[in-house]
Write a structure and sequence with these properties.
88 residues, Rossmann fold, 3 strands, Glyco_trans_28_C, hexosyltransferase activity
Amino acid sequence: MLNTWDSPVDIHPFGFVDNVEVMMSAADCIITKPGGLTVSEALAKNLPMILVDPIPGHEERNVEFLVNNGMAALVTKTFPLEEAIYQL
């Protein structure tokens, strides 16, 4: 989807990478699931997060904390990716 998305912002989708620190240092924000390790790494880099598809339990609690504290936006059916990008 992102490979063909017509947007005024420059988006580069990646799958799994071995150089997370380098990638996060170069990024303006990250679009990710709200798992503990990725969230911790993004917080350490002061990297804004756009969160997607949290699973019940810890990921939902991560979303609640991050969104309520202005550190992330959650993409949902009623709050699409483009709006989340502009919010950050």
